[in-house]
UniProtKB/TrEMBL annotation:
A Gene Ontology term for the protein's cellular component: cytoskeleton
Sorted UniProt keywords: Coiled coil, Repeat
Descriptive protein name: PKHH1 protein
Entries under SMART domains matching the protein: B41, MyTH4, PH
Coiled coil spans: none
Gene3D superfamilies assigned: 1.20.80.10, MyTH4 domain (1.25.40.530), Phosphatidylinositol 3-kinase Catalytic Subunit, Chain A, domain 1 (3.10.20.90), Pleckstrin-homology domain (PH domain)/Phosphotyrosine-binding domain (PTB) (2.30.29.30)
Domain FERM: 517-850
Domain of life assignment: Eukaryota
Bias type Polar residues, positions: 26-42
Residue ranges of every copy of the PH domain listed in the record: 99-193, 208-316
Amino acid sequence: KATQISNVPFLDESSGSDDDCGSHASFRTSTALSENRKSSMPGSPRAVKRGVSMSSLSSESDYAIPPDACSLDGDYSEPEHKLQRTSSYSTDGGICTEPMEKSGYLLKMGSQVKMWKRRWFVLRNRQIMYYKSPSDVIRKPQGQMELNSSCQIVRGEGSQTFQLVTEKRTYFLTADSPNILEEWIHVLQSILRVQVTTSPGVPRSDAKPTVKGWLTKVKHGHSKLVWCALIGKTFYYYRNHEDKCPLGHLPMRESKVEEVDRSCDSDEDYEATGGGLLSSHCTLVIHPQEQSPTYLLIRTKQEKNTWLYHLTVAAGSSNATVGTAYEQLIGKLLDSEGDPSSPLWKHPMLCYSKDGLHTSLTTLPSEALQTEALKLFKSCQLFINVPVEASSVDYHVSLAQTALQVCLTHTELQNEIYCQLVKQTSCRQPQNHSLTQCWQLLALCAPLFLPQHHFLWYIKQHFQRHADPRSEIGKYAIYCQRSVDRTVQAGEREAKPSRMEIVSILLRNPYHHSLPFSIPVHFMNATYQVVGFDGSSTVDEFIQRLNQETGMRKPSHLGFSLFTDDPSGKNLEHCLQGNMKICDVISKWEQALKELHPGKYEGGTRIVKLTYKNRLYFRSQAKGETDRERLLLAFQVSNEIASGRFPVNKELALEMVALMAQVEYGDLDRPGSSSPGGTSPSKMQHLLHQVLDKFYPKRYKQNITAEQLRQLAGRLAEKWMVLQGCSPPECIRIYLTVARKWPLFGTKIFAAKPVFPSLLEDYPVWIAVNEDGISILDYNTMHLKVFYPYSSVLTFGGCRDDFMIVVGQMKERGSGKKSTEKLLFTMAVPKIVEATLLIASYINFRSAPSLLPSPQPCRSKTAANKLWETESRCFFPSMPRSTKGPTLL
């Protein structure tokens, strides 16, 4: 069922021979005819009500033609099967399997009067000519298209429409069925030797809609309820709000948007269509360039006003009658290109007023959001007017977080809060704290989200007008300018500001620094480095700054990653992805802590702990290591040895403990030495026990007596004294040289237990993951049991509460048959996630040679390929060249 919008003609009633240049007189005739006959139109409510059938107006074979594209002049009412719909000819007169000529009916969009017109198209001699009917082919064609190498074929909306782009013009064409469309595209491709492209109809996944919602879209007389979103200057529509790929899109640039007057329609006409539409529903019409009009049926007046305003702005129209009075004034300022001398800047509507708001400043799609906008204004007023004090700063933290979370949840309010704050800071005398705190709230908004369209232009103008390094307000304006530029560059955030961020803005004068926030990053050697960042800093940018300050190479040349601790306090770590924002990480961690301890959370008592350590190890990264990298890697290996995750015997373990003691504490003085720095025997014993507790494998100290422990400390002292005078870098070099003798050095291992039935014994094992593949190690000796290169891994990941690896192996060397083996292991759920992501990271690095770390960046593509081939030969003899990796569950 479809609702026919009857006040604009869809049909081409003109009998003129010039298809593209119909006169105004013929257009008026068309309008009159369509008005006189609209009661018999197949899509009109009255036609449906009286039971007028489609077959009385067009042939049965015209099923694919929209009702409003059917002509009423009789040319198209004859049965279609009497005409030769399509035909193919070969250039030499015989039958050709690759037809180079074709003819048939297509619908063509008029160039001046935007209506679909049914024309007979003939393709011959690299030319397309079109006529009103097949019988007119002996006459002069109504138009023709020259086909050459510059032509393009673009698939349009739906399965039956395409565009033929020539040097002079773009033709919009629709076939009667998808099969006929494919025939035409196939023939045109054969002639033009070009690839068919798709129109840019899929928005970026991170694109934020200006306005969105369910609307009834009417085109060619057919209506459909679709989910609509205006993103940038393009109108997209989807089957539902979860779809990523739209059904179609309309370019809004230079389109015409207007409201349709439907006061003459009655409710019973719309009820007859069965679509649940009423005459009280509002209707907008969009006239895109080179396309037929599209109608949008909207249920409420508030929604209609919102869509009308934002569509008009996206189209670039200067319609001064849409939007609120505040929005209209901004539009006028934009039309004057922000003339500084314009009196509009001091218009009472745009300036601060002691009176509260009684209605929203921006157009909002529902009464509920308009009510929420007024609540938002009251929250902002409390934040602005109550003086900030360090002892009670949590009151302002709560107000800011609540208000900004509302804006993140209801994106329609983001324009509103900016307009409210800009109004509060315009033409206002800096008499007390209120103006400063209003600018501070703006400083919190800027890194979080940005307003849309000309609101963004307006706030940039506002910041520019107030920027002045000589005053505090001017400094905040400059800070907001920087924040907006960074947000435009790095994108918007996901979470509300953290307590740390809000306190920094309120109490620490953020405008003094380009990086107003800072947080310590901890290393495996128990040291830390304080790193600065701003509201838009990503994890990648944060790590790059950290590496510069600590003397480490670029992140692409080493496998170090940033980790956070778990808010629950458990011994868990979470690896951070490079595109995440540091402020989002801190905020989400704080929120998780509050949810774990509701009512007990005290702001500032505990903050997130960031740790920087090695996650991916590649043998090629050893060349070019800096001293700092070696130091951190050695301490990480030492931690693995102490926890029993690195295979060393007791004697070797003691020697490695001595090396770490020399690095950590320096030379060991002999007891009772006459030198001023000599140590007493008791102090020396305490130091030795401290070193053993920190670096010696814990499993070797279990069940030993006090005497055995004293003897162990004595042997450690002997080995330590041998290293007297050895510098820390030299000790680290020796330590890593010894550690790298283990073939699986750099491997991350996970404790697991095979699940029956399994080819492995029912005893705990270690799952070792490194750059070569996945190894299964004996739990006690850490000897290799079985190894699976990544080329044999088919599937891996969490399977219910277990970790699963599916591998494919050759049954016999001579035969090409493969056997599939499934391995199931019981593991802690966090470790399942960690192991899965680690395997995926190694496979991704292996699949992309350019991502492999190397001591020096490759200067040519050939060098990069050689590196990849060399490593593949050494470590992946059977790995295929395809970049397709295993399936990740």
